[in-house]
Amino acid sequence: MSNSTEVFTLKNKNNVEVSFMANGGRIVSIKVPDKKGEIADVVIGYDTPEEALKGDSYFGALCGRYANRIVGGKFTIDGVEYQLDTNNGNNHLHGGFEGFNVREWKVEPVVIDKYAQAYKLLLVSPDGDQKYPGELTVEVVYGLTDDNEFVIDYKAETTKPTVINLTSHPYFNLKGAGNGTVEDHELQINASKYTPIDEALGTVSGEIAEVKDTLFDFTSAKKIGDAVNGDWEQLEYGGGGLDHNFVIDDYDGTVKLAATLFEPASGRKLEVYTDQPGVQVYTGNHFDGSEKGKHGCPIEKWGGVALETQIFPDSPNHDHFPDAVLRPGETYKHLCVYKFD
Ligand code: BGC
Question: How far apart are CA 304 and CA 42, in angstroms?
Answer without folding.
Answer: 9
